[in-house]
Amino acid sequence: MAPYESDESITASETEVPRGRRRAARYVVPLAVTGVAVATIGLVPALADSGSPDLPEISAEQLVQNIAESDTEQLSGTVRINTDLGLPDLGGLESGLFSGAASGGDGGEGSAADPSTRLTELVSGSHTLRVAADGPDRQKVSLLQEAAEYSVIHNGKDVWGYDSRSNEVHHSTSGGTGEAEDVPATPKDFAEEALKAVDETTSVTVDGTARVAGRDAYKLLIKPRQSGSTVGAISIAVDARTWTPLKFTLTPAAGGAAVVDAGFTQVDFGKPAASTFDFTPPKGAEVTEQDAAEQGEGGFEPGEGDLPFTPGEDLGQGAEGMDTIGEGWNAIAVLDTGGEGIPSGEEVGGDFGGFLDSLGDKASGKFGSGTVFKTRLINALVTDDGKVYVGAVTKDALVKAADSHR
């Protein structure tokens, strides 16, 4: 059978995805990329499709159901991450910001092995990961670097971060509550969030077949029906035997390269060796212990990554002062900071001031004036009186929302 396209489109009622979780996903998917939420480990991009295998036809509804019912808990493999938010060249500022974050931002009190800060480097560029999982209590993700490696190991209640370059170790405990604290490590994590976004504003179709990491796969295509969203389409390659997502690609409405291209280059669905998840701090390593109180104040937890609020009808209940305008993929989160907006790059000065200016465009309307900070996916309007409008929508949509919210 030749590659095929299905005209069949499904809606929220057919996918049986909880409504509140669907709305949250519209923010989680793009904002997880921008803010490196989802512990950023979840960004697992991949190689291009190779071939179009001959597979039996399947409906979009059945493919979504198969993904939801997949019981894959054991795997290992190599993943390629390519993330292109369209951020300007920081001229060295980027590495300075990240190293400052890794040291606690105060001159060196933090650990270079702390996952909550170290993994922010995955927000841009290309990276290679080795991943392994054996159920909800054992996962390992290793970020391969030139002559070095950074790993996060979750084994039972223990979460270890290890930076081979600095020989530093970060240790915390996850509480051992199982799947809720699972370390995201494969395209399945992103696929699940994308499927939660399916409702009447979304088109879901089967878009032919592909070969990914040497395995036959169906391609599921998710597209907003609404205009004004910066999200063009989400493509998910789904393994035809295990129904595990192998590749996740998010392309912007404006065209060009994918914002996130996530997929396996090699995968094995066998049980990883138990020793894969063993970890003992190397001799001479500097070990930082993160106590429970620190973890409750923003420390890393495996599986962490959803936004600290639920968009849609529940948005205002999750964060004080939060509101929402619009619905579907065009929903815009609104926050009144009570402040005086963002200072201009000229006011800030230095490299960071130049960075602010490179991101921002001046905007004005009935709401007054402000600055739109932009990426290829997420745009945010910060008004001079301290209101923030943010969403995966165009600049014009943000200005219109601000005008209507006066």
Question: Which tags fit this structure?
Answer:
single chain; 406 residues; alpha+beta; outer membrane lipoprotein receptor (LolB), chain A; TATA-Binding Protein; 2 domains; twelve-stranded mixed β-sheet; 11 helices; globular; disordered N terminus
What do these coordinates show?
This protein is α+β, with helices and mostly antiparallel strands and 406 residues long. The chain folds into 2 domains: 12-295, outer membrane lipoprotein receptor (LolB), chain A; 312-404, TATA-Binding Protein, CATH 3.30.310. It has helices spanning 12-15, 19-34, 60-69, 93-102, 115-118, 187-195, 292-295, 315-318, 345-348, 350-359, 395-404; strands at residues 74-83, 125-134, 138-145, 148-155, 158-163, 168-173, 202-212, 215-224, 231-239, 245-252, 260-268, 286-289, 322-325, 332-336, 360-365, 368-374, 379-383, 387-391. The strands form 2 sheets. Strands 7-8-9-10-11-1-2-3-4-5-6-12 form a 12-stranded mixed sheet, with helices on one face. It has a 6-stranded antiparallel sheet with strand order 13-14-18-17-16-15. β3 (138-145) and β4 form a beta hairpin. α2 (19-34) crosses α6 (187-195). The longest helix is centred in the first third of the chain and has 16 residues, at 19-34. The relative contact order is 0.18. Residues 1-8, 11-49, 90-108, 176-185 and 296-320 have low confidence and may be disordered.
